[in-house]
Amino acid sequence: ILKRKSMDLLEGQHVLIYGPSGSGKTTLINLMAGLLKPTKGKIYFKNIDYSSLDELEIDNLRKEKFGFIFQKLHLMEHLNVEQNISLGQNTTNPHHVSKLIDLLGLSERKKSLARNLSLGEAQRVAIARGVVKKPEVIFADEPTSALDDNNAKKFIKLILSEAEQNNANVIISSHDSRIKAYFSKVLVVSK
Description:
The protein is an alpha/beta fold. The chain has helices at residues 25-32, 55-65, 81-86, 94-103, 119-131, 149-166, and strands at 14-18, 44-45, 48-49, 66-69, 137-141, 169-174, 186-188.
């Protein structure tokens, strides 16, 4: 599926990996994030070839430079909204956590346990956790799949605003046509 895919991103550029379910979008984003190893080809981040890194080095690269919004949310059900978002940081910044909670319309739910959230609320918590540490690259896999139109628009504006503040790249994989208009660079994948 991913044969002969090539792409370069300059610092601060954004790309939407767009295509139907089963077209390899998640696999491609996981390769770019260093979560999977390619069987062929090369992946570079700031001229560092992933294949030259050992497991600890790639883990540290992800921890220090990347933010993730996974399709499966991976929230800690026994923690509340604030605590789950704070897990995404290297250091705790309560002001930034509060700002994200407000921007995503979760103020009244900030002390709610993750297990008591709706799917849309949980997805917004995962989004905040993915951007809270101000990463250099934000990877998001189907981040708007459980969001209504209003919250999808809020998400896109938030993630692009956070990226602009840090001159970060945003790499989103999605089949959601509502978000295509926000990207000048779209990589279309098909089955």
